[in-house]
Amino acid sequence: MQVVVDRYPTWGDVVQVDTWVSGSWKNGMRRDWLLRGCKTGEILTRASSVWVMMNKLTRRLSKIPEEVREEIGSYFVDSAPILEEDNRKLPKLDDNTADYIRSGLSPRWSDLDVNQHVNNVKYIGWILESAPQAILESHELSSLTLEYRRECGRDSVLQSLTAVSGADVDNLAHSGQVECKHLLRLEEGAEIVRGRTEWRPKPANNFDTVNQVPAVST
């Protein structure tokens, strides 16, 4: 899954979300998303993901049956991916290559889907649990790439690992783009998600000069 944030919505923005499905090889399909400002049409966020079919008994990838493909094929949109695929390999982190590790992460009941598996959105939050606080304070997330490798359930206990590339975390005042590599794994070692995030400096805070209300004398 890839997500690129061109601009974050601000207070008062009305956002339109478009999504569509396209065929993607024999085992899966692709879903894209486009978020735009309703008034201006400005593109805010683009995302693309590949979904696969899995055999419920063997837990292995399975080819989509032809009768199923025929049934859902009429809903497919013939279009190119909204994002060019990022073919850079996502490396596996370990205790020696990670700069930050957060342990003891476990799902709550509200994190589970109907199959008693952790919802994919929760993985993003867990990945960011090990991102250094200094980056979260000075930068904003500009892109995200995730590679889901294994499911986890309600009794799973996980670790989140992060390695920072190309920046001194203790001196981010003049840093531009920052890249982080991530791994979410079970505490016994099995990989759940590999990821990469890119961060850009937060825009200047204009709250001190915008919408100031003059004092009223009494």
SSE map:
Elements (H helix, E strand, L loop, with lengths): L1 E4 L9 E10 L3 E10 L5 E10 L13 H7 L27 E6 L14 H10 L3 H6 E10 L9 E8 L12 E9 L4 E11 L17
Antiparallel strand pairs: 1-4, 1-6, 2-3, 3-4, 5-7, 6-9, 7-8, 8-9
Structural account:
- The protein contains 3 helices and 9 strands.
- With 218 residues, it is mostly beta strands.
- The protein has 2 domains: 1-85, Roll (Thiol Ester Dehydrase, Chain A); 88-202, Roll (Thiol Ester Dehydrase, Chain A).
- A 9-stranded antiparallel sheet has the order 2-3-4-1-6-9-8-7-5.
- A hairpin with a 5-residue loop joins strand 3 (28-37) and strand 4 (43-52).
- It is globular and about 55 Å long.
Content of β-strand: 35-45%
Approximate helicity band: 10-25%
Mean pLDDT level? 87
Q: List unreliable stretches of 5+ residues.
A: 206-218
Sketch the major β-sheet.
9 strands, antiparallel
Whole-number tally of structural domains? 2
